[in-house]
């Protein structure tokens, strides 16, 4: 794709785009460092604006497009065939180093071009000047508390659920929608009782009101800030997220669960039965791996509440590409 096409595509998704292009490593590295500083400053400015003045509208986050040759700095030509800058660089560019002395010589020249003698000492250890650049403590990627959510987890305050039970005087003698009382529970308990901690989010594929959970919006705004405008209590975004893409919602749920916040999602049954099987399996792998690592705190379970019935799956199957 041409640069203008890529720019328009990414800008259409709400980002501000900067390009870094070239084949001269020294120049590209400098250009990339400059753009990284721009992106860092832009993110910091957006965060400061939101934290000091509140939500002022959807920000345009920075995005970087890096264009460099495939197989950059690798062998340019092998056995008379162009490699660098072609699809061949995606494969093994020098596959005959054991049998072909010329390939071995090219490999040696390629690796020496990175000047390892300036990076490592005689014993093969990284030189102190470079080792000191690595972060330590909680600044390490794997040790960052936000990457190990259990360290920051604050338990939800929950009262006796019997306080929210519905009286049933006789079998079949009472009528009530099953999700509407749950919306009251979420409003009074999860959001109101835990308002100070702000440690819970809810993600729904459609409007909460259509799923009979609209009571939540009496005390909590939409996460996006621009959805459900007639129900918003103020212009500030809240912890109730709405959107039509269930897969996107699950990613947002994961973005809450993995760092430190309990979250709950309301997918359609047809999506649980079909589209989310892969996503649920992926989350199960996270749980399994977390349990096997002694330094990782437990990850929260993925809570889902089906928002449609099997009948709805059948009747809307043609629209959602579900068999039947």
Q: How does this structure look, described?
A:
- Helices cover 35% and strands 9% of the residues.
- It has helices at 3-12, 25-53, 101-112, 128-131, 180-191, 246-257, 269-275, 277-292, 310-315, 317-320; strands spanning 15-21, 61-67, 77-78, 81-82, 201-204, 240-242, 263-265, 303-304.
- The radius of gyration is 27 Å and the shape is elongated.
- The chain is of the alpha/beta class and 324 residues long.
- The longest helix is centred in the first third of the chain and has 29 residues, at 25-53.
- It folds into two domains: 1-68, no CATH class; 153-320, 3-Layer(aba) Sandwich (Rossmann fold), CATH 3.40.50.
- It starts with a helix and ends with a helix.
- The strands form three sheets. The protein has a four-stranded parallel beta sheet, covered by helices on one side. A two-stranded parallel ribbon has the order 1-2.
Helices and strands, with pairings:
Elements lengths: L2 H10 L2 E7 L3 H29 L7 E7 L9 E2 L2 E2 L18 H12 L15 H4 L48 H12 L9 E4 L35 E3 L3 H12 L5 E3 L3 H7 L1 H16 L10 E2 L5 H6 L1 H4 L4
Parallel strand pairs: 1-2, 5-6, 5-7, 7-8
Antiparallel strand pairs: 3-4
